[in-house]
Amino acid sequence: MKINLIIIAVCLVAFLARAQEEKEKGGFKWPNGLRFGAQWSTLREVGGGTEDPISGFYAGYLRRVNLIPFFRLETGMEYMQGGGHLVNNTKLKLHYLVLPLQVVAKLGPLFITGGANANFLLHQDLFVDGNKQGLNSDNKASFFDVTVDGGAGLSILFLAIELRYYYGLMEVKNQYHNQQLQLGLKIHF
After folding, report:
1. What predicted TM-score, i.e. pTM, was given to this entire model?
2. What is the pLDDT along the chain (189 residues), one digit of tens a residue?
3. What are phi and psi of 82, to 5 degrees?
4. Distance CA 21, CA 18 (A)
5. Is domain 30-188 in CATH 3.30.450.40, yes or no?
6. Which residues of 2-37 are buried (b: 16+ CB within 10 A; e: fewer)?
């Protein structure tokens, strides 16, 4: 519960700082929308297979910059849960603050997305045989990860249903890379 309060506080401070900056430029602007949904995460070993996924959620806000009528950029800030099951009945649960940069191409109600994300590790838990383990330099995950993603969705009025797949470009722990599948909603203001 403590980590969730810290994450909410960080997001709120970042949002308010950005809003104050925009107010000084001549007008207060709220975020253009919210993203939230279910997430299934796994860790993929380099040269190996994918371990069993764990379920979690993601939530955040987004800002849209329309470039042309059917093409835009989206940025924002999100919280997401990652990790997965490893060998020897080990589970690693990772909590990230994510700064996304997405390109969105829209044709009618359908859209496709692609982008890159900077993921900052907020907290991690390691479980072996269901027992929480202490963390040290040998079993900690990396503080930073970069992921790329692609997805598709359907917009209906101010709501959008979307599906995205994320792949981690950096080693998170012992030659493992993050992978996530997200299914959720976007609400546009």
Report:
1. 0.80
2. 455 556 555 655 565 555 555 555 555 555 689 999 999 999 888 777 666 789 999 999 999 888 888 899 999 999 999 888 877 788 889 999 999 999 999 999 999 999 999 999 999 988 888 888 887 777 788 889 999 999 999 999 999 999 999 999 998 887 888 999 999 999 988
3. -130, -165
4. 5
5. no
6. eeeeebeeebeeeeeeeeeeeeeeeeeeebbbbbbb
